[in-house]
User: Which sequence fits this backbone?
């Protein structure tokens, strides 16, 4: 939401653009860090209760951001927003995985990813439209949305799908997260979301610096990212179920990287919108890849596995402003190319995974020697 209002946020809080941009990192660091454990904790506390309280805390933090008189208070509210939101998305993904058979999981997660993409589309649009009047209205809208969502948390799981393992004890839930498939999902999620955050952030700045667009116009440009993801998500879900998650993920990662690298050279607003749309579709497909791998990696602790992968996903988002903004200010090309490297990393890891697994199996089978 703040991506398209950074200049206005800087002016309204009487602070620098760098401090305003740090609101992305201040939100995402606690978001990603707490998400390492939020899913497993929520399995113990109860999903519905946890989600309800998370939304209520998020609403209060949004009010703090809206009323903040200084940058320090605003950043504190953003940190609490991130901490609260760590207890929502992974639990919703786990709830879906409890309700849907494995043969249709890709399609279901595709629909979920599409609705996430819709949120990504409307958030910068709401932020940009609000900033054209007063950025504080965006946080008022966030507080109202979170309050309404607190009233309708998902029900607790009442059954397990046939391919699930038996429920795990608390200690074994934590130990079950130490598996290679989940580790790969985390690394893929990290790379893809470094690229996703980079494309959104740098494109909003490019729209301002190169084309002179105002906050509402920047919001519309960035919104095409989420709209494209919404329109393509269910098709990508069916395709992933049909061709397999690994080849699907490799192809998506390479396409995503190429589009992001080329965005630096867009000569017109129209082509920037096209690049954002293609990037949004690729990012949604990439999210489907890492989420599918994570949620199927640990049947006895699906919420924990999902929260672990999402933690690394948003860690990629958190470091994007810190690493990419200095490069962008040195060279637009350099900033976008560095952003694209995250998707290249994800594709390379997926491509190398079978070879790594074969090597591990050979090592395990080899007799010990003195």
Assistant:
């Amino acid at each position: 939401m703040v991506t398209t209002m950074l200049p206005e946020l800087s002016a309204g809080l009487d602070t620098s653009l760098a401090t305003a941009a740090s609101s992305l990192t201040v939100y995402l660091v606690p978001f990603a860090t707490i998400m390492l454990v939020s899913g497993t904790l929520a399995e113990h506390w109860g999903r519905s209760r946890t989600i309800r309280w998370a939304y209520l805390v998020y609403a209060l933090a949004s009010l703090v951001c809206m009323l903040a008189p200084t940058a320090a208070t605003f950043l504190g509210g953003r940190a609490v927003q991130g901490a609260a939101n760590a207890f929502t998305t992974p639990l919703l993904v786990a709830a879906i995985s409890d309700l849907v058979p494995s043969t249709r999981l890709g399609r279901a997660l595709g629909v979920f990813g599409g609705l996430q993409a819709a949120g990504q589309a409307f958030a910068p649009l709401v932020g940009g439209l609000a900033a054209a009047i007063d950025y504080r209205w965006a946080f008022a809208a966030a507080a109202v949305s979170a309050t309404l969502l607190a009233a309708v948390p998902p029900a607790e799981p009442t059954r397990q799908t046939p391919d699930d393992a038996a429920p795990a004890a608390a200690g074994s839930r934590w130990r079950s997260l130490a598996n290679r498939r989940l580790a790969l999902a985390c690394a893929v999620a990290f790379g893809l979301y470094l690229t996703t955050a980079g494309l959104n952030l740098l494109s909003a700045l490019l729209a301002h610096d190169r084309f002179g667009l105002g906050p509402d116009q920047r919001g519309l440009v960035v919104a095409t990212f989420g709209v494209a993801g919404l329109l393509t998500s269910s098709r990508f879900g069916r395709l992933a179920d049909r061709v397999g998650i690994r080849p699907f993920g490799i192809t998506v990662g390479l396409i995503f990287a190429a589009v992001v690298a080329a965005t630096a050279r867009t000569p017109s607003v129209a082509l920037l919108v096209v690049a954002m749309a293609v990037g949004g579709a690729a990012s949604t497909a990439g999210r489907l890849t890492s989420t599918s791998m994570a949620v199927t990696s640990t049947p006895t602790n699906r919420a924990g596995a999902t929260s672990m992968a999402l933690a690394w996903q948003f860690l990629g988002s958190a470091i994007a402003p810190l690493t990419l903004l200095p490069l962008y200010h040195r060279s637009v090309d350099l900033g976008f190319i560095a952003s694209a490297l995250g998707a290249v990393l994800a594709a390379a890891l997926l491509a190398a995974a079978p070879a790594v697994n074969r090597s591990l199996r050979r090592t395990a089978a080899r007799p010990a020697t003195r």
